[in-house]
Design a protein that fits this description.
Blueprint: E1 6-11, E2 20-26, E3 29-35, H1 48-51, E4 67-69, E5 75-77, H2 80-98, E6 103-106, H3 113-127, E7 132-133, H4 136-139, H5 141-150, E8 168-172, H6 176-179, H7 181-192, E9 196-200, H8 206-209, E10 213-215, H9 222-235, H10 241-247, E11 248-249, H11 251-258, H12 263-270, H13 274-286, E12 290-294, H14 296-299, H15 304-317, E13 327-330, H16 337-342, H17 359-369, H18 381-389, E14 395-399, H19 403-406, H20 410-418, E15 422-427, E16 439-442, E17 451-454, E18 459-463, H21 476-486, H22 496-506, E19 523-524, E20 551-552, E21 571-576, H23 592-597, E22 602-605, H24 607-613, E23 620-625, E24 628-636, E25 644-648, E26 676-684
Parallel strand pairs: 6-7, 6-14, 8-9, 8-12, 9-10, 11-20, 12-13, 14-15, 15-16, 21-25, 22-24
Antiparallel strand pairs: 1-2, 2-3, 4-5, 4-16, 17-18, 18-19, 21-26, 22-25, 23-24, 23-26
Bound molecules: iron/sulfur cluster.
Amino acid sequence: MLPGERLVLTTCVWCGTGCQFYLRVRDNRLVGVVPSRSHPISRGRLCLKGWKSFQFVHHPDRLKYPMIRNSKGQLERVSWEEALDYVAGRLMEIKRKYGPEAIAVFGSAKCTNEDNYVLVRFARATIGTDHVDHCARLCHASTVAGLARSFGSGAMTNSIDEIEDAEVILITGSNTSEQHPVIASHMMRALNRGARLIVVDPRRIPMARIAHIHLSHRPGTDIAWINGFINVIVNEGLADMDFVRNHTTGFEEMWEVAKEYTPDVVESITGIPKEDLIRAARMYASAEKAMIFYAMGITQHVTGTHNVFALANLAMVTGHIGKPSTGVNPLRGQNNVQGASDLAVVPGKLPGYQDPTDPEVRRKFARVWGVEPPAWKGFASTQVSDAIMDGTVKAVYIMGENPVRSHPDIRHIEEAFENLEFLVVQDIFPTETTKFAHVVLPATAWGEKDGTFTNTDRRVQRVRRAVAPPAEARDDWWIIQEVARRMGDDYGFEDPSQIFDEMASLMPIYSGISYDRIEREGIPWPCPSPDHPGTPYLHRDGKFNTPDGRGRFFPVRHVDPPELPDEEYPFYLTTGRVGVHWHTGSMSRRIHYLEREVPEPFVEINPEDARTLGVRTGDRIRVCSRRGCVEAKALVTDTVSRGVVFSTFHFEEAPINLLTINVLDPIALIPELKVSAVRIEKVERNA
Ligand code: SF4
């Protein structure tokens, strides 16, 4: 730290790991970061994104003034008074004309818990709509749906701190070293202490290269290999039948299905050699402490919820749950996607995963909100485009999301947004979505606001205002509260701590947490009282949070993805992220260090496929699905298997979600983002 600087302790803005560090501040500018050595997760370590996190905040592209689209179709600067009056007036008009169910609201996993709580109150109390959702719909909606049914809680069962004591680590569908690098460093420490690593992933990702066993399966065949593990474990007497008898229900029904998935059957479906499957199943089952980690390779499928059921089945059949360093751990992507889910920025729930049809819960919220929340279940964000097209939804209010880039089959959502009567977007940068907005409202960024994030291991942590926002940007919660006040509903919040106290008073899992208690270190929920220390691992002694206290087995079968390669489209396209960029790139692509690392879109292709197509690294190729084409550079690599290509959704130059298919998991309504069929054409030789 240099003279004239001060330090402000905060939580990282990018991934769900929730590393903490100090922001270095000089003359109202963020100038650097200093890691926190005492933080239980980061322990003085950060990834490149963390080190460079502050650099997008002062970017000249920041939205600085409220804008309304004029009669020529241009966004025109207006005063806050005019913008807020206009938004409130239009929303009231639409509500009067069509009813509250004509309005949908999108929250944000990038915003604080306090921002999201005010948004939820705005939607359910002020407007009266349950069409509330956020980007968890695109990543871990199937986790929330699946683990909530299997275990009673849709979150990581263990803390990150416990990883180092694991004996076996099973990673599937998570490129952990790129997407959660600091969690990967905990895994590396476990490996240095003798832990064994199994990676099940179609790609030869970095963790697969150091794994004791890497199983590379065909995309979309997860249920088959997981049932195959269970088949081997039960047939070889490695199941923990005492745990199954004493703490679970539904084993027999599950086994009726899993017993069909012999290693031979699994090999024919997945391509995994049966000897490797057997070896891996024995390794996982025989450990005393075994942890499963997964991410979007499991969840972003039409079978996403069933994939999660299958992993829960695997953990329960071995009794690998409810103990330290032993459990099922979804790695949440965004910094506050756990918090936004906790706050019920999803339809059909109230904050704290409470049931909006429960009369006692309804009364509790009505006492604070002054009105009962809707008892009906709203649309998921992935259903909103269709609802706009059929005339059900007329207005959308978006806080900090960019669905025009992040949702599948982009053309469909663009067409829908063109048909909206009213679209409000509040954000920090112009995005593909603000291009469709009737009103754009400038929000404060991370580093400019106070509040809390809840990380992937359920730890509620402080974020702090270190610098003033640019020009007329305002806190998200303030903007929403001002719109609500103009609609006749005054919440009376003066600062985020008041918001936190109100939401904690309504959510039993947060009710023992306060700003005072998390001043230096966060607390993992559930934390039901002010003297409760928080809960590092869930389901202790096999006590699940289900109504009968037992874990629930669900029988699940393999089904083919909705679109498989054929003669016309012979490749599997699977999508994901790279380590240095973040989601739709609106923040990370404005950081020149990160942009320098990966400046342009690329498509990974296997060397044998590349040879057949006459393609070399750097050649420009066209990737086409039934929904459109994008062009990008080829990257020839053995990371992907033959017949599979991989790309990311960070780049507007090659918006990969033009290609992905808009078919949803019927339970979680998450789209199939991991498997689409494409063909590859060479466009231009790299000079
Ligand atoms: Fe931030 Fe995640 Fe990197 Fe930690 S691992 S510094 S939370 S991006």
